[in-house]
Amino acid sequence: MIYFDNSATTKINSGVLDTYNKVSQNIWGNPSSLHQFGSEAHNLLTQSRMQIAKLLNVSPGEILFTSGGTEGDNWAIKGTAMIKRKFGNHIITTSVEHAAVHNPVEQLKKLGFEITYLPVDKNGRVSVEDLKKAIRPTTILVSIMAVNNEIGTIEPVKAIGELLKKYPKITYHIDAIQGVAKGLENIIFNDRVDLVSFSGHKFHAPRGTGFNYKRDGKKIAPLMAGGGQERGLRSGTENLPGIAAMAKAFRLVMTNEDEKVRHQRQIKSEIFNHIKKFPNVIIFSKNDDTFAPHILCFAIKGVRGETVVHAFEKYGIYISTTSACSSRDQSVTSTLSSMHVDSSIAEDAVRISLDENNTIEEAKKFNQVFDQLYQQFSKLS
């Protein structure tokens, strides 16, 4: 099997799974309990938080555990809207955000908030100048993804941070779900960002795990009220096995990061340079540093994306139709639509997404199968 759908989810690391099982079996105490067993659980929770914080060069108190990217994005957006509503009701985001950002913003719109969706250029990238023009006295939040999950565009999040230094009262949130271990920490953790969302299952941690970075001193309302866990900001008994396993997965994926990024770029280049030779292939992802190293989106004109996905599946190669969250309802990709790609072409789009465990040999096998399928599709056309 060749798994090229890592932007949808990654395989849990065997050592990470071992940590999950050991903690589940040996440290099942509640971290809030006062007895010794509870203290052991609390200490492991603290160690996990410290490990993640150290890897990101932030304070442990700035790391808050969640159930994943969807909760993290919802919390950042709705929590900011709730606590800052008396100061304004205007939110700025982009037209290419993941549903975990787009849908919460649309919910807030129904509650009276005003939303500006920034347009993108032909590469799916927003303009800092457009953002500047969109800012109002009532703007309370700017939410921008670091890496587009459909075509891999790296958004100008650092430049946006520079602009927002002039507007210190606006909360700045980055969805970094697709940005972990891609060599982007220096742009994501710029000195203006307030909130950042991460999802564990995107970097070989268990599903149902994640964390948010919240700048020290930045206020946000809790989405869940209860027992007061996570400093009263995210109540609910902590998923300690998942958190400990996620901290280990994060350490492992961040180890030798530069080498892993180069490796993924090599694999992406192997496929990119091969399929670009074919006249009916349209490639939406560039093969340079303005795009993430692990995502390659393309279309074979006249062949629907789901047809291509299932054709590769017969050879044991797993790819996807852009975002996994919208593939089953067969909705046209929001990114390509926002890029003004004709809907008939957008419906043909598929996505390859890599990780550090993929190989050049897998890329070459993909290219061989691609050649066979391309010939078959050409005959049908």
Automatic annotation (TrEMBL):
InterPro entries: Aminotrans_V_dom (IPR000192), Cysteine_dSase (IPR016454), PyrdxlP-dep_Trfase (IPR015424), PyrdxlP-dep_Trfase_major (IPR015421), PyrdxlP-dep_Trfase_small (IPR015422). Keywords: Pyridoxal phosphate. One of its GO terms (molecular function) is catalytic activity. Residues 2-366 form the Aminotransferase class V domain. The keyword Nucleotide-binding does not apply. SUPFAM superfamilies: PLP-dependent transferases (SSF53383). Its cofactor is pyridoxal 5'-phosphate. The keyword Repeat does not apply. Pfam families: Aminotran_5. This is Cysteine desulfurase. It comes from Philodulcilactobacillus myokoensis. The gene is csd2.
